[in-house]
Write a structure and sequence with these properties.
148 residues; Ribosomal Protein L22, Chain A; 5 helices
Length: 148
Amino acid sequence: MKAFLKNYRQSPRKVRLVAELIKSKRVADAIVILDTLSKRASGPVQTLLASAVANAKQAGIPIEGLFVDNVTVNKGIVMKRSMPRARGSASRINKRTSHVLLTLSQTGFKSKKEKAAEKIVKVVKTEKKATKPAVKKSSTTKKEEAKA
């Protein structure tokens, strides 16, 4: 399930700090992390997570197995403002916005340790196949088989 937050009025750099904390976590764990976090972006990201969970519930997906598959924070529109400076000049102020895309997934939740263990098992299996001795056929001819 997906949920979008567009034109959130905070810079993407600051929102990414929050997004990285909940990536590849279970939904319940992500909610706890966002509750205890003291960043401004944690509130809107938590609302976005609740929206994605509601989308999953509407689609009939059980909520217990859900985890945050991906959180993407992209640059939104930039509002240009100016600040008066000395001698009649002005300097520009960029008021940045963010687009946040949150994706939930149901199957395939594996921790980093489990993924690493699977890679090791695959390597070991391929090594065993490569070192298996080939079975040689006996060099008997048809005439010898007919005699026996």
